From TrEMBL:
Its cofactor is Zn(2+). This is Regulator of free ubiquitin chains 1. Gene3D superfamilies: Cytidine Deaminase, domain 2 (3.40.140.10), Phosphotransferase system, lactose/cellobiose-type IIA subunit (1.20.58.80). Pfam families: JAB (PF01398), USP8_dimer (PF08969).
Amino acid sequence: MSISDLGREANNYVFSSTVSFQNWIHVSNTLRYEAKVSLNENDLERAYLLYLRYADLVLNKLPTHPSFATNKRSYNQALKLLPAIIEIAEEVKTKLNVVYAERAKIEVQKPVPPPVPEPKPVQQELPQLDLGTSFGGALDSLKKRQAAPRTAQSFAFSYPSLSTTEPEGLRNVLFPRGLEAKFLAAAAPNTKRNLETCGILCGRLRNRVFVITDLVIPFQESTQNTCTTLREEVLFDYVDSRDLFILGWIHTHPSQTCFMSSVDLHTHSSYQIMLPEAIAAVCAPSHEFSFAIYRLTDPPGAEIIKNCRQTSFHPHDERDLYCRAQPGHVRITDDAFTFCDLRTKVV
Protein backbone atom coordinates (compact mmCIF):
# COMPACT_ATOMS: atom_id res chain seq x y z
CA MET A 1 0.00 0.00 0.00
CA SER A 2 1.17 3.55 -0.74
CA ILE A 3 -0.12 7.11 -0.45
CA SER A 4 -1.19 7.04 -4.10
CA ASP A 5 -2.96 3.68 -3.56
CA LEU A 6 -4.91 5.18 -0.66
CA GLY A 7 -5.83 8.17 -2.80
CA ARG A 8 -7.22 5.94 -5.54
CA GLU A 9 -9.15 3.84 -3.02
CA ALA A 10 -10.59 6.98 -1.38
CA ASN A 11 -12.27 7.87 -4.68
CA ASN A 12 -13.49 4.32 -5.25
CA TYR A 13 -17.07 4.57 -3.96
CA VAL A 14 -20.54 4.87 -5.45
CA PHE A 15 -22.16 8.30 -5.35
CA SER A 16 -25.81 8.06 -6.37
CA SER A 17 -28.25 10.92 -6.83
CA THR A 18 -31.08 8.55 -5.87
CA VAL A 19 -29.85 8.88 -2.26
CA SER A 20 -31.18 12.06 -0.68
CA PHE A 21 -28.86 15.02 -0.14
CA GLN A 22 -29.44 14.90 3.62
CA ASN A 23 -28.44 11.24 3.61
CA TRP A 24 -25.15 12.18 1.97
CA ILE A 25 -24.61 14.91 4.56
CA HIS A 26 -25.06 12.21 7.19
CA VAL A 27 -22.53 10.06 5.32
CA SER A 28 -20.03 12.92 5.46
CA ASN A 29 -20.50 13.07 9.23
CA THR A 30 -19.98 9.33 9.61
CA LEU A 31 -16.84 9.52 7.44
CA ARG A 32 -15.38 12.08 9.85
CA TYR A 33 -16.39 10.03 12.86
CA GLU A 34 -15.04 6.74 11.48
CA ALA A 35 -11.78 8.48 10.52
CA LYS A 36 -11.46 9.76 14.08
CA VAL A 37 -12.09 6.26 15.49
CA SER A 38 -9.51 4.79 13.10
CA LEU A 39 -6.98 7.44 14.13
CA ASN A 40 -7.54 6.68 17.82
CA GLU A 41 -6.97 2.98 17.05
CA ASN A 42 -3.75 3.91 15.20
CA ASP A 43 -5.14 2.65 11.90
CA LEU A 44 -3.42 5.43 9.96
CA GLU A 45 -4.17 4.08 6.49
CA ARG A 46 -7.90 3.79 7.15
CA ALA A 47 -8.02 7.25 8.76
CA TYR A 48 -6.19 8.88 5.83
CA LEU A 49 -8.42 7.15 3.28
CA LEU A 50 -11.59 8.31 5.05
CA TYR A 51 -10.42 11.91 5.40
CA LEU A 52 -9.64 11.97 1.66
CA ARG A 53 -13.05 10.47 0.89
CA TYR A 54 -14.73 13.17 2.97
CA ALA A 55 -12.88 15.85 0.98
CA ASP A 56 -13.84 14.28 -2.34
CA LEU A 57 -17.48 13.90 -1.30
CA VAL A 58 -17.78 17.52 -0.17
CA LEU A 59 -15.75 19.16 -2.93
CA ASN A 60 -16.55 17.04 -5.97
CA LYS A 61 -19.66 14.94 -5.45
CA LEU A 62 -22.20 16.90 -3.38
CA PRO A 63 -22.27 19.93 -5.75
CA THR A 64 -23.45 17.57 -8.54
CA HIS A 65 -26.48 16.35 -6.56
CA PRO A 66 -29.87 17.43 -8.02
CA SER A 67 -30.91 18.86 -4.63
CA PHE A 68 -27.69 20.82 -4.07
CA ALA A 69 -29.26 24.23 -4.71
CA THR A 70 -31.91 23.74 -2.02
CA ASN A 71 -29.46 22.42 0.57
CA LYS A 72 -26.78 25.11 0.58
CA ARG A 73 -27.00 25.62 4.33
CA SER A 74 -26.16 22.04 5.29
CA TYR A 75 -23.53 21.90 2.52
CA ASN A 76 -21.80 25.04 3.78
CA GLN A 77 -21.61 23.50 7.25
CA ALA A 78 -19.80 20.49 5.80
CA LEU A 79 -17.58 22.78 3.73
CA LYS A 80 -16.52 24.80 6.79
CA LEU A 81 -15.05 21.65 8.34
CA LEU A 82 -12.90 20.91 5.29
CA PRO A 83 -9.79 22.99 6.17
CA ALA A 84 -9.46 21.23 9.52
CA ILE A 85 -10.00 17.85 7.85
CA ILE A 86 -7.29 18.56 5.27
CA GLU A 87 -4.89 19.66 8.00
CA ILE A 88 -5.44 16.43 9.93
CA ALA A 89 -5.08 14.40 6.72
CA GLU A 90 -1.72 16.05 6.01
CA GLU A 91 -0.51 15.19 9.52
CA VAL A 92 -1.59 11.57 9.01
CA LYS A 93 0.10 11.53 5.61
CA THR A 94 3.38 12.64 7.20
CA LYS A 95 3.17 9.80 9.72
CA LEU A 96 2.35 7.32 6.97
CA ASN A 97 5.37 8.40 4.93
CA VAL A 98 7.57 7.63 7.94
CA VAL A 99 5.92 4.21 8.32
CA TYR A 100 6.33 3.40 4.62
CA ALA A 101 9.98 4.53 4.68
CA GLU A 102 10.67 2.22 7.64
CA ARG A 103 8.95 -0.66 5.86
CA ALA A 104 11.03 -0.07 2.73
CA LYS A 105 14.24 0.00 4.80
CA ILE A 106 13.35 -3.31 6.43
CA GLU A 107 12.60 -4.88 3.05
CA VAL A 108 16.00 -3.78 1.70
CA GLN A 109 17.80 -5.20 4.75
CA LYS A 110 16.11 -8.59 4.51
CA PRO A 111 18.60 -11.31 3.50
CA VAL A 112 17.96 -12.89 0.15
CA PRO A 113 16.99 -16.54 0.76
CA PRO A 114 19.08 -19.15 -1.08
CA PRO A 115 17.42 -20.74 -4.06
CA VAL A 116 15.30 -23.73 -3.20
CA PRO A 117 16.09 -26.77 -5.34
CA GLU A 118 13.16 -28.10 -7.27
CA PRO A 119 11.78 -31.27 -5.72
CA LYS A 120 11.98 -34.43 -7.69
CA PRO A 121 8.67 -35.28 -9.32
CA VAL A 122 6.66 -37.78 -7.31
CA GLN A 123 4.21 -39.96 -9.11
CA GLN A 124 0.66 -39.17 -7.95
CA GLU A 125 -1.45 -42.09 -6.82
CA LEU A 126 -4.10 -41.55 -9.43
CA PRO A 127 -5.49 -45.10 -9.68
CA GLN A 128 -7.36 -44.57 -6.38
CA LEU A 129 -9.74 -42.34 -8.35
CA ASP A 130 -10.89 -45.44 -10.16
CA LEU A 131 -11.44 -43.48 -13.33
CA GLY A 132 -10.07 -45.85 -15.94
CA THR A 133 -7.08 -48.00 -16.77
CA SER A 134 -4.78 -45.28 -18.12
CA PHE A 135 -3.00 -42.53 -16.15
CA GLY A 136 -4.02 -40.11 -18.90
CA GLY A 137 -7.70 -40.75 -18.26
CA ALA A 138 -7.26 -40.41 -14.50
CA LEU A 139 -5.33 -37.14 -14.89
CA ASP A 140 -8.03 -35.70 -17.12
CA SER A 141 -10.68 -36.63 -14.56
CA LEU A 142 -8.63 -35.09 -11.74
CA LYS A 143 -8.27 -31.86 -13.69
CA LYS A 144 -12.02 -31.77 -14.29
CA ARG A 145 -12.67 -32.31 -10.59
CA GLN A 146 -10.30 -29.47 -9.63
CA ALA A 147 -11.77 -27.16 -12.27
CA ALA A 148 -15.40 -27.88 -11.41
CA PRO A 149 -17.01 -24.72 -9.98
CA ARG A 150 -18.14 -24.92 -6.36
CA THR A 151 -21.61 -23.45 -6.22
CA ALA A 152 -23.62 -22.72 -3.10
CA GLN A 153 -27.14 -24.04 -2.90
CA SER A 154 -29.48 -21.26 -3.98
CA PHE A 155 -33.13 -20.66 -3.20
CA ALA A 156 -35.29 -18.24 -5.12
CA PHE A 157 -38.64 -16.63 -4.56
CA SER A 158 -40.54 -16.18 -7.78
CA TYR A 159 -39.93 -12.46 -7.27
CA PRO A 160 -37.41 -11.12 -6.49
CA SER A 161 -34.64 -13.73 -6.49
CA LEU A 162 -32.85 -14.71 -3.28
CA SER A 163 -29.30 -16.08 -3.15
CA THR A 164 -27.44 -17.79 -0.30
CA THR A 165 -24.00 -16.65 -1.48
CA GLU A 166 -22.24 -13.94 0.49
CA PRO A 167 -19.22 -11.81 -0.52
CA GLU A 168 -16.19 -11.68 1.73
CA GLY A 169 -14.59 -8.59 3.22
CA LEU A 170 -17.58 -7.23 5.15
CA ARG A 171 -17.03 -6.04 8.70
CA ASN A 172 -19.08 -7.73 11.41
CA VAL A 173 -22.40 -6.24 12.51
CA LEU A 174 -23.49 -7.22 16.05
CA PHE A 175 -27.28 -7.49 16.32
CA PRO A 176 -28.82 -7.53 19.86
CA ARG A 177 -31.00 -10.56 20.44
CA GLY A 178 -33.81 -8.61 22.14
CA LEU A 179 -34.17 -6.00 19.41
CA GLU A 180 -36.69 -7.95 17.33
CA ALA A 181 -39.13 -8.33 20.25
CA LYS A 182 -38.79 -4.66 21.23
CA PHE A 183 -39.47 -3.56 17.67
CA LEU A 184 -42.49 -5.85 17.31
CA ALA A 185 -43.94 -4.42 20.53
CA ALA A 186 -43.58 -0.89 19.15
CA ALA A 187 -45.09 -2.02 15.82
CA ALA A 188 -48.03 -3.90 17.40
CA PRO A 189 -50.67 -1.14 16.96
CA ASN A 190 -49.85 -0.90 13.24
CA THR A 191 -49.61 -4.68 12.88
CA LYS A 192 -53.14 -5.08 14.25
CA ARG A 193 -54.35 -2.70 11.54
CA ASN A 194 -52.32 -4.59 8.89
CA LEU A 195 -49.97 -1.62 8.43
CA GLU A 196 -46.20 -1.84 8.07
CA THR A 197 -43.81 -0.25 10.57
CA CYS A 198 -40.14 0.57 10.10
CA GLY A 199 -37.26 1.31 12.43
CA ILE A 200 -33.66 2.44 11.94
CA LEU A 201 -30.72 0.39 13.22
CA CYS A 202 -27.99 2.68 14.53
CA GLY A 203 -24.70 1.93 16.22
CA ARG A 204 -21.02 2.49 16.75
CA LEU A 205 -17.74 1.23 15.34
CA ARG A 206 -15.52 -0.61 17.80
CA ASN A 207 -12.27 -2.21 16.64
CA ARG A 208 -13.60 -2.46 13.07
CA VAL A 209 -16.82 -4.11 14.26
CA PHE A 210 -20.20 -2.37 13.97
CA VAL A 211 -22.30 -2.71 17.11
CA ILE A 212 -26.03 -1.91 16.94
CA THR A 213 -26.65 0.23 20.02
CA ASP A 214 -29.86 2.11 19.15
CA LEU A 215 -33.22 1.17 17.66
CA VAL A 216 -34.91 4.37 16.49
CA ILE A 217 -38.53 4.55 15.29
CA PRO A 218 -38.77 7.56 12.95
CA PHE A 219 -41.81 9.55 11.90
CA GLN A 220 -43.39 7.52 9.12
CA GLU A 221 -46.33 6.95 6.83
CA SER A 222 -47.56 3.38 6.52
CA THR A 223 -49.71 1.26 4.23
CA GLN A 224 -50.33 -2.49 4.07
CA ASN A 225 -47.26 -2.96 1.86
CA THR A 226 -45.04 0.09 2.34
CA CYS A 227 -43.54 2.31 5.02
CA THR A 228 -42.00 5.72 4.24
CA THR A 229 -39.93 7.73 6.71
CA LEU A 230 -40.93 11.37 7.25
CA ARG A 231 -39.16 14.38 8.79
CA GLU A 232 -35.78 12.76 8.25
CA GLU A 233 -34.00 15.80 9.66
CA VAL A 234 -35.22 14.76 13.14
CA LEU A 235 -33.72 11.30 12.66
CA PHE A 236 -30.40 12.73 11.45
CA ASP A 237 -30.27 15.14 14.39
CA TYR A 238 -30.64 12.16 16.74
CA VAL A 239 -28.00 10.11 14.91
CA ASP A 240 -25.40 12.82 14.29
CA SER A 241 -25.65 14.31 17.79
CA ARG A 242 -24.65 10.91 19.20
CA ASP A 243 -21.95 10.09 16.60
CA LEU A 244 -23.90 7.05 15.44
CA PHE A 245 -23.73 5.12 12.19
CA ILE A 246 -26.90 4.10 10.37
CA LEU A 247 -26.32 0.36 10.04
CA GLY A 248 -29.58 -0.58 8.33
CA TRP A 249 -33.29 -0.81 8.95
CA ILE A 250 -35.98 -3.16 10.19
CA HIS A 251 -39.60 -3.38 9.07
CA THR A 252 -42.68 -5.56 9.39
CA HIS A 253 -44.66 -7.58 6.89
CA PRO A 254 -47.91 -7.74 8.90
CA SER A 255 -49.59 -10.39 6.76
CA GLN A 256 -46.90 -11.47 4.27
CA THR A 257 -43.91 -13.79 4.65
CA CYS A 258 -40.24 -12.90 5.13
CA PHE A 259 -38.78 -11.70 1.83
CA MET A 260 -37.60 -8.51 0.14
CA SER A 261 -40.09 -6.94 -2.26
CA SER A 262 -38.93 -4.76 -5.14
CA VAL A 263 -39.74 -1.69 -3.05
CA ASP A 264 -37.71 -3.13 -0.16
CA LEU A 265 -34.76 -3.76 -2.48
CA HIS A 266 -34.81 -0.17 -3.72
CA THR A 267 -35.14 1.15 -0.18
CA HIS A 268 -32.21 -0.94 1.00
CA SER A 269 -30.09 0.10 -1.97
CA SER A 270 -29.75 3.58 -0.44
CA TYR A 271 -28.55 2.11 2.86
CA GLN A 272 -26.04 -0.22 1.22
CA ILE A 273 -24.67 2.49 -1.08
CA MET A 274 -23.86 4.52 2.03
CA LEU A 275 -22.49 1.55 3.98
CA PRO A 276 -21.70 -1.82 2.34
CA GLU A 277 -22.33 -3.65 5.64
CA ALA A 278 -25.89 -2.22 6.00
CA ILE A 279 -28.58 -4.80 6.71
CA ALA A 280 -32.34 -5.10 6.21
CA ALA A 281 -34.25 -7.03 8.89
CA VAL A 282 -37.76 -8.27 8.07
CA CYS A 283 -40.34 -9.36 10.66
CA ALA A 284 -43.32 -11.45 9.57
CA PRO A 285 -45.18 -12.04 12.88
CA SER A 286 -48.09 -13.95 11.31
CA HIS A 287 -45.86 -16.67 9.82
CA GLU A 288 -43.73 -19.45 11.25
CA PHE A 289 -40.64 -18.19 9.40
CA SER A 290 -40.97 -14.85 11.15
CA PHE A 291 -37.58 -13.12 11.06
CA ALA A 292 -34.68 -12.75 8.64
CA ILE A 293 -31.78 -10.39 7.96
CA TYR A 294 -30.94 -9.62 4.33
CA ARG A 295 -28.64 -7.57 2.10
CA LEU A 296 -28.24 -6.99 -1.62
CA THR A 297 -25.76 -9.29 -3.30
CA ASP A 298 -22.74 -7.43 -4.63
CA PRO A 299 -22.52 -8.48 -7.38
CA PRO A 300 -25.04 -8.61 -8.97
CA GLY A 301 -27.96 -7.23 -6.92
CA ALA A 302 -26.50 -3.91 -5.73
CA GLU A 303 -25.62 -2.74 -9.26
CA ILE A 304 -28.88 -3.96 -10.81
CA ILE A 305 -31.07 -2.20 -8.26
CA LYS A 306 -28.95 0.98 -8.32
CA ASN A 307 -29.45 1.26 -12.07
CA CYS A 308 -33.15 0.36 -12.05
CA ARG A 309 -35.36 3.42 -12.63
CA GLN A 310 -38.72 1.77 -11.99
CA THR A 311 -40.74 2.78 -8.96
CA SER A 312 -43.47 1.20 -6.85
CA PHE A 313 -43.87 -2.60 -7.08
CA HIS A 314 -42.42 -4.14 -10.23
CA PRO A 315 -40.98 -7.52 -11.24
CA HIS A 316 -37.27 -8.32 -11.35
CA ASP A 317 -36.46 -11.36 -13.44
CA GLU A 318 -32.73 -11.29 -12.58
CA ARG A 319 -31.52 -14.01 -10.24
CA ASP A 320 -29.71 -13.70 -6.90
CA LEU A 321 -30.58 -10.07 -6.16
CA TYR A 322 -30.35 -10.42 -2.40
CA CYS A 323 -29.25 -12.91 0.22
CA ARG A 324 -29.54 -13.84 3.87
CA ALA A 325 -26.82 -12.20 5.94
CA GLN A 326 -24.30 -14.85 6.92
CA PRO A 327 -22.69 -15.45 10.36
CA GLY A 328 -19.42 -14.04 9.01
CA HIS A 329 -21.23 -10.74 8.54
CA VAL A 330 -23.99 -10.53 11.19
CA ARG A 331 -23.68 -12.00 14.68
CA ILE A 332 -26.48 -12.15 17.25
CA THR A 333 -25.41 -10.99 20.72
CA ASP A 334 -26.93 -10.42 24.16
CA ASP A 335 -25.80 -6.77 24.21
CA ALA A 336 -28.08 -4.06 25.58
CA PHE A 337 -29.41 -1.35 23.29
CA THR A 338 -31.27 1.96 23.49
CA PHE A 339 -34.82 2.31 22.21
CA CYS A 340 -36.15 5.66 21.01
CA ASP A 341 -39.54 6.27 19.40
CA LEU A 342 -39.30 9.71 17.81
CA ARG A 343 -43.04 9.67 17.11
CA THR A 344 -43.79 10.01 20.82
CA LYS A 345 -41.37 12.87 21.43
CA VAL A 346 -42.29 16.55 21.23
CA VAL A 347 -40.02 17.83 18.47
